TrEMBL record:
<protein>
    <recommendedName>
        <fullName>HTH merR-type domain-containing protein</fullName>
    </recommendedName>
</protein>
<dbReference type="Pfam" id="PF13411">
    <property type="entry name" value="MerR_1"/>
</dbReference>
<dbReference type="InterPro" id="IPR009061">
    <property type="entry name" value="DNA-bd_dom_put_sf"/>
</dbReference>
<feature type="domain" description="HTH merR-type">
    <location>
        <begin position="11"/>
        <end position="81"/>
    </location>
</feature>
<dbReference type="GO" id="GO:0003700">
    <property type="term" value="F:DNA-binding transcription factor activity"/>
</dbReference>
<dbReference type="InterPro" id="IPR047057">
    <property type="entry name" value="MerR_fam"/>
</dbReference>
<keyword id="KW-0238">DNA-binding</keyword>
<dbReference type="GO" id="GO:0003677">
    <property type="term" value="F:DNA binding"/>
</dbReference>
<dbReference type="InterPro" id="IPR000551">
    <property type="entry name" value="MerR-type_HTH_dom"/>
</dbReference>
Length: 116
């Protein structure tokens, strides 16, 4: 578990975020054009750098769009607070953070398994 703690980073590449969230990079880039709250910074080389908060938002968007079948417009209203998700629970952000952490642990374990 010590190695996993070292795996936590301040910034993640689009490839890492794609792997953690199981969302294709082209979808992540598209979502940037639709959701104003999703705007990863770019480094000097022009590569996107995602923070923990960005990954949490991406997982919330994934839940709304892919699992609850909201349109991007509907998900945008919920994210921007204009509409209320009837099944919204106060711990939904916590759930997204836990999902992110679980995905990172899964990736770590898979990489560890490959080394065995």
């Amino acid at each position: 578990m010590k190695d996993f703690i070292a795996m936590k980073k301040l910034y993640y590449s689009i490839g890492e975020v794609s792997e953690i969230t199981d969302i294709e990079p082209h979808v992540l880039r598209y979502w940037e054009t639709v959701f104003k709250d999703l705007s990863p910074r770019k480094n000097k080389a022009g590569n996107r750098t995602y923070r923990e908060e960005d990954i949490t938002l991406i997982l919330k968007l994934k839940h709304l769009v892919q699992e609850k079948k909201y349109s991007t417009a509907g998900a945008k209203k919920i994210i921007e607070g204009e509409d209320q998700d009837p099944a919204n629970e106060s711990n939904q952000v916590l759930t997204a953070e836990m999902q992110k952490d679980l995905n990172e642990v899964k990736l770590f374990l898979n990489k560890l398994l490959e080394k065995l």
